[in-house]
Amino acid sequence: MYVLDTDVVSELRRAASGKADEQVVNWASGIEPALAYISAVTAMELEIGVQLVERRDRSSGMVLRQWLNNDVHAAFEGRILPVHVEVARTAATLHIPDPAPVSDALIAATALVHSMSVVTRDAGDFSRFSGLNVINPWRDAAADGGAGVAGRLRAPEVRRE
To answer: Which pLDDT tens digits describe the chain residue by residue (161 residues)?
Structure first.
């Protein structure tokens, strides 16, 4: 099972326009959607990103809001993992001896507590966490075939005018 980092979810949004990295799309298409999860931290990061765009560009913000509310939340319904006490305590241990970015530590801890792999482009940031399996679909061997998670996160590309 997999915990998708924010960068993976964001990249898959670009698949409908053909602008997503082919290896990422192939990887996501090759896994069963039921095996893909996100952390509540990823949900927060996506929400922050959408709100920032909404403040700058109402039209683009509306497109992203629709994608987040209708596509992402639907695609991961029942598969958004909360940050509970065990995750928080595990994340705290990941800050010793060197402090780590809080979001990365919480996502890593979520994966560790649930015995999952983290899927991210930022493999270097997560490789510091002992015992965590990290997959970089931009670089690692891509799986093919299947009707995976990639098709469920597609939305129109945001257009700049």
So the answer is: 999 999 999 999 998 888 999 999 999 999 999 999 999 999 999 999 999 999 999 999 999 999 999 999 999 999 999 999 999 999 999 999 999 999 999 999 999 999 999 999 999 999 999 999 999 999 975 443 344 565 455 433 333 33
Residues whose CB is less than 8 angstroms from the CB of residue 3 and which lie 6 or more positions away in sequence, other chains included: 37, 38, 39, 42, 81, 107, 110, 111, 114, 116, 117, 118, 119
What is d(CA 74, CA 76) in angstroms, rounded to the nearest whole number? 5
Question: pTM score, two decimals?
Answer: 0.86
- Where in the sequence is the domain holding 105, given as residue range(s)? 2-152
* Residues in contact with 101: Cβ distance below 8 Å, sequence separation at least 6, in sequence order: 125
157 in a structural domain = no
CATH code, domain carrying 62: 3.40.50.1010
Nearest to 87 by CA among 109, 117, 105: 109
Residue 69: how many other CB atoms lie within 10 Å:
12
